[in-house]
Design brief:
This protein is an alpha/beta fold. It contains eleven helices and nine strands. The chain folds into two domains: 137 residues, Rossmann fold, CATH 3.40.50.1370; 156 residues, Rossmann fold, CATH 3.40.50.1370. Helices cover 39% and strands 15% of the residues. Helix 4 packs across helix 5. The protein is globular, with a radius of gyration of 19 Å. It binds N-carbamoyl-L-aspartate.
């Protein structure tokens, strides 16, 4: 029974299959003739952390494929977790109702715990600052669509890299393709965990860590901006100190390649100036749309359909 827990669980041939199926699914959505492959299935979406795109795109994906959806949002308050129920007990119950269970949770490792007792496929929709594999795959699909390739790219990540689970899911996917070089751009306080960088270096991944957004801008094919994750800070003063340090401005665009793309998992707060949105290189709304197709494919994938 396949779960989707971490981006590094996928090998290259599985990824290629997912991406090519997403293209076919996208076409079927555009043409309005989606095969109702999930008819009579029930998909549970249980979110213990806020979400707009992830939950609603999963629900849309399920509905487009003919499934029905049961859903708990704000589950920290609105589910029995509020009364102290363990994730294991909650998972057992969800598996007795639904055919697939999609979970987002603030605690790192929640999905591993849940998987120990699950009797139906689980999908990680984000666990703390750890993993967000379905976002990693939709980001990969976006790069493939926008650039026509996944290799020999210069990819810059800017902002709160310490807490970005989307980065931690996208990098392990991109590193499977040759010639990619990563630029990790952040203030020291928000730099990537040392072990994450060490692991990449040990695997021979080409990377540089930088403190200024401007320095490598002209070389980037992809600039992936991230939000400073306020909810992960224990001290609000620390958040105030770093929240405005990295802002992509309209004037920066002049220094970027004509065919570069700007990505962001969204929601964006102030890390991208509003004027950037109308530049054709701003790919983040297209990126969010791609989430629908990838999540349709992933629901099919975990059910072996
Ligand atoms: C991201 C997340 O939840 O990790 N959002 C998303 O799923 N598109 C990024 C974020 O919240 O900043």
């Amino acid at each position: 029974m396949p779960n989707i827990i971490s981006a590094s669980q996928f090998n290259k041939s599985e990824i290629e299959k997912i991406l090519s199926r997403a293209k076919a699914v996208e076409e079927s959505v555009q043409n309005g003739n989606v095969n109702q492959l999930l008819k009579n299935k029930i998909i549970a979406c249980v979110f213990f952390e806020p979400s707009t795109r992830t939950r609603l795109s999963f629900e849309t994906a399920a509905l487009k494929l003919g499934a029905q959806v049961i859903s708990a949002e704000n589950a920290m308050e609105n589910s029995s977790a509020h009364k102290g129920e363990t994730i294991e007990d909650t998972t057992k119950i969800l598996c007795s109702y639904a055919d697939v269970v999609v979970i987002r949770h603030p605690a790192v490792g929640t999905l591993e715990k849940a998987a120990k007792v699950a009797t139906k496929p689980l999908i990680n929709a984000g666990d703390g600052n750890n993993q967000h594999p379905t976002q990693g795959l939709l980001d990969l699909y976006t790069i493939k669509k926008e650039h026509g390739r996944l290799d020999n790219l210069n990819i810059g990540f800017g902002g709160d890299l310490l807490n970005s689970r989307t980065l931690k899911s996208l990098v392990p996917l991109l590193r499977l393709y040759e010639g990619n070089k990563f630029y990790f751009i952040s203030p020291k306080e928000l730099q990537l965990p040392r072990e994450f960088v060490k692991d990449l270096k040990d695997q021979g991944v080409l990377l540089e860590e930088l403190r200024s957004l401007e320095e490598k801008l002209p070389e980037l094919d992809v600039l992936y901006m991230t939000r400073v994750q306020k909810e992960r800070f224990t001290n609000p003063i620390d958040y105030e100190k770093v929240k405005d340090l990295f802002v992509l401005k309209k004037e920066h665009l002049r220094n970027m390649k004509k065919n570069a793309i700007i990505m962001h998992p969204l929601p964006k707060i102030n890390e991208i100036e509003l004027e950037v949105d109308s530049d054709p290189r701003a790919a983040y709304f297209r990126q969010a749309q791609n989430g629908l197709y990838i999540r349709m494919v992933l629901l099919l994938y975990v059910l072996g359909l």
